[in-house]
Design a protein that fits this description.
Blueprint: H1 3-23, H2 25-39, H3 44-48, H4 57-63, H5 69-80, E1 92-98, E2 107-112, H6 113-134, E3 144-148, E4 155-158, E5 161-164, H7 166-172, H8 176-179, E6 182-183, H9 186-189, H10 194-205, E7 210-215, H11 217-231, H12 236-239, E8 245-248, H13 257-263, E9 270-277, E10 280-285, E11 293-295, E12 301-307, E13 320-321, E14 330-337, E15 344-355, E16 358-365, E17 369-370, E18 377-378, H14 379-393, E19 396-405, E20 414-423, H15 428-442, H16 444-450, E21 460-463, H17 468-475, H18 493-501, E22 508-509
Parallel strand pairs: 1-5, 3-6, 3-7, 7-8, 8-9, 20-21
Antiparallel strand pairs: 1-2, 4-5, 9-10, 10-11, 11-16, 12-13, 12-14, 14-15, 15-16, 17-18, 19-20, 21-22
Helix pairs in contact: 1-2, 1-6, 10-11, 14-15, 15-16
């Protein structure tokens, strides 16, 4: 039976299940809470918090403390040495190395067979199911699926224990139905040296019949440019005529959207966003005409949320489940999972656009914001304003970071934007003005602080030399994969380290 026919059968079954959790979200989540607690009651963690006696969400919330990575790390260290039945009863032998933003130390997130199969792989299948459901009669399995994975080195810890980027773990354990259409070769996909990897990926895939691209927008764009250089073609549709879908995640797509439309000038090209972190697969864009993500409620994850106005890390007092969230409020995401994370603060923030069904947007990080002057600037504001300024000035942004310039007896406060452009704006002064204009429109607190330049002056834009951020990451051994530049800093620590690194290079400022 052809693969496309098999998927048509899978779709009918899976869409029915998705419709069920859309219709009964609270009930589905409570069932998963009960199932997670019951499954883990005989683990060391379950015994510590007497899971056998927990019957209600209130009991769970009161008995089990909120966790950050430092709280979980002692258990992870023991798991990595081969101990089992600590956080989850089934074997835990894989650990996803999650570096987050480049200034942070690495974290090792436990990945169980349950979380791999019932969460990460299930998310991949659901993305395709929803796509086929929205656009019937697709033929994606007639061609290849080009996956631009992370820095995919797999490292052996013990005789039966491994760590690597999540993408490495996924590639190493792909089910046959995904592996049979994947490109490039596994050897190339698992390379850790990104310069060599991009070159080999380009040469291996340039003659393939690619229908799907999947990856982080920034590295996918680097690969696309190299393929066009090698092929002499003007756009990717000339290289891959049947290309129709780009599945992306990891960073906001807004600053990259216009450039991908230039790379792939086809009105029938579709872009679908996912929210797949080392800790779990959380959301999928389920509508073609909206970038909002559907919260996936039956992946072995129980969700909780901390309103950001009450956020105080593990000491946060106000924590709600899905039944209590409201649209328009910024929440820190908290998860309990079939990977053995319990009431774990992921570090990401989300805002719901709808609760019937539960659709949301990723708004940033709990540690990535600027509120030095009461402006409450979050990553979501910055990404949307950046995308707006780019669309009006022909600019393409590869990377950026923003830090406050503090007030003193002479100078008013400001935000300094260090931006690496793939394509410079046709007018940098207008770019700055448009960026400021959109920020004021999106954020009333920022707008108030900008009033007559009393507290904040207009953004100060620094255009940094091409390759600066990659060089910075490479110097720290974090080039590629899930490593990211910190977007917004509430202090100058990150940017001063970056500027120190670039001390011998000329920074063009406007």
């Amino acid at each position: 039976m052809p693969f496309n026919s098999i998927f048509a059968w899978i779709i009918k079954k899976r869409i029915h299940q998705i419709d069920l959790f859309r219709k009964y979200p609270v009930e589905v989540q409570r069932e998963w809470m009960d199932k997670l607690i019951q499954t883990a009651q005989h683990t060391e963690w379950g015994k510590r918090f007497i899971y056998s006696e927990i019957k209600t969400y209130d009991q769970f919330r009161e008995r089990v403390p909120l966790q950050e990575y430092s709280d979980v790390e002692p258990f992870v260290n023991r798991l990595m040495k081969g101990e089992q039945n600590l956080l989850w009863p089934t074997e835990t032998k894989w650990f996803a190395k999650s570096s987050g933003t480049s200034g942070q130390r690495s974290k090792f997130i436990p990945v169980t067979k349950d979380s791999l199969e019932d969460c990460h792989y299930k998310g991949g299948k659901d993305l395709l199911a929803l796509y086929y459901h929205n656009l019937p009669n697709r033929k994606l399995y007639n061609g290849k699926h080009l996956i631009v994975g992370g820095s995919a080195q797999v490292n052996q810890l013990t005789s039966d224990s491994y760590f690597g980027d999540l993408s490495a773990i996924i590639v190493k354990n792909l089910p046959w139905w995904a592996e049979i259409r994947r490109t490039p070769s596994r050897e190339t996909a698992l390379l850790s040296q990104w310069e060599e990897k991009i070159e080999r990926m380009a040469r291996e895939t340039i003659e393939e019949d690619v229908y799907i691209l999947a990856g982080v927008p920034s590295w996918t764009m680097v690969l696309a440019k190299r393929i066009l250089e090698l092929s002499g073609k003007s756009n990717l549709k000339e290289v891959w005529p049947n290309l129709e879908l780009f599945m992306h995640g990891g960073v906001s797509f807004d600053p990259y959207r216009a450039h991908f439309q230039d790379l792939i000038p086809d009105p029938n090209m579709h872009y679908v966003e996912t929210y797949n972190a080392s800790e779990g697969f959380f959301g999928i864009q389920d509508q073609i005409d909206s970038s909002d993500l559907l919260l996936m409620l039956d992946y072995g994850i129980f969700y909780e949320f901390i309103p950001m106005q009450h956020f105080d890390g593990v000491n946060s007092k106000k924590v709600v489940d899905i039944s209590e969230v409201k649209p328009g409020i910024n929440y820190a995401l908290v998860i309990s999972t079939n990977g053995g994370l319990w009431r774990y603060i992921v570090g990401d923030t989300v805002r719901f656009s709808s609760v019937e069904p539960y659709r949301f947007q990723i708004t940033g990080r709990t540690t990535s914001f600027i509120n030095v002057f009461g402006e409450e600037l979050i990553v979501d504001n910055a990404e949307k304003a950046m995308g707006y300024a780019c669309s009006k000035t022909g600019a393409v942004v590869k990377d950026y970071t923003v830090a406050p310039k503090f007030m003193n007896s002479i100078d008013t406060g400001a935000h300094e934007w260090y931006i690496e452009f793939s394509e410079e704006p046709n007018d940098i002064t207008r770019f700055s003005s448009l960026l400021d204009e959109k920020l004021r429109e999106l954020n009333s607190d920022y707008d108030a602080k900008r009033y007559q330049n009393f507290v904040l002056v207009a953004p100060i834009i620094y255009s940094v030399t091409a390759g600066s951020f990659d060089s910075w990451l490479k110097s720290k051994g974090k080039l590629g994969g899930q490593n990211k530049i910190l977007r917004l800093s509430n202090n100058r620590e990150f940017v001063e380290q970056f500027l120190s690194f670039l001390a011998t290079e000329k920074i063009k400022s406007t």
